[in-house]
Specification:
Purple Acid Phosphatase, chain A, domain 2, seven-stranded mixed sheet, 6 helices, globular, 23% helix
Length: 364
Amino acid sequence: METEYRDYAKKEAERIKNEIKGGNFDTVFAFIPDLHYKCITEMRVTVGNIISVINDVNKEQKVDFAVLGGDNVGNYPPSPEEHIDMMRELNEYFSALDMPWLVCQGNHDDNSIHGHKENMPPFKSASGFEVPDSVQYDVLFSHQRSYANFISPDAEKALYGAYDMPQKRMRVIVLNGDEVPHMIEKNGWLKYSQQWDYGYSGEQLRWLGEKALNVDGETDIVLIEHIPFPGGLENDGAATNGDVLTEIIKSAMSGGSYKSHCSDGDFPYDVDVDFSSRKINVIARICGHIHTDAHLLRGGILDISSAAAGRNNSGVARDENGRELIKTPYSAKETCFDFYCINKEKRVIKTVRYGIGDGRTFNY
């Protein structure tokens, strides 16, 4: 898709190159959460600049991959067909990147919010507006499996996966905290709406413990998903099986083992992992969803969120310094997203911000 690379975006790209230069970073990637993309001129200009900036930076400082961080589209037209059109257009833009790009599913990406009615029970959605996971996969996720270093899930059309960089001893695992079953009750309600109900399937948990985290002790892991990880940053609802996910991660980091089984209900799982032969280095868990810059170090796990890249009407929250990042269309402040830069020797993660807001530095 043809785009105009605006002068203000070019200046931002030059500043970013200078900030990254000389940092001896082992891995650099772009994280773009909460775009809430809509097929309008303002958003087309914004996303065109995002793609141009990432490719521009990549010419001088290799960008290993980019991640669409969830809530990629949504909250605009109620029509599922228009929702899918937004996904198709976003796919066209990101397909112009000169490096692999990965995708998180967000809680707005299934369009189920439009089934909610104020005069009906809260936090429930009527069926008929939702875009099934299989359609989201076909339109926005399926390209990932073409990457030689992509670690595919065992489940067909799953909206999670991993990307390996063996020469850098680095692996990024993209999880899906919105993996709830599509079940329609007799009254036409969705039993679980991805808008408000979060969870991890047994298939995803098993894949994480047995395959995605199956690395040697010298390979660092970055975990990414849209919803904040259980036990991490502020969230607006507990994820089903979130406790199991936490125990798998803790076992990997401590070099321990974990076994648990549940055959009841809609979220069965059977997990049996053993990391006693090595400890896994999970250096950070990164998320979007809360639309703000925040971080938390708890139990040896570093959780980081990046502010929303979307327009003001997708929601503006105060960052951890108490500031509101108000977007200004057709300017360098039209959006914000971060380049995550990792220096393994110094054990430092530096974020370099494009657009409104500031970069941050974290030790791990």
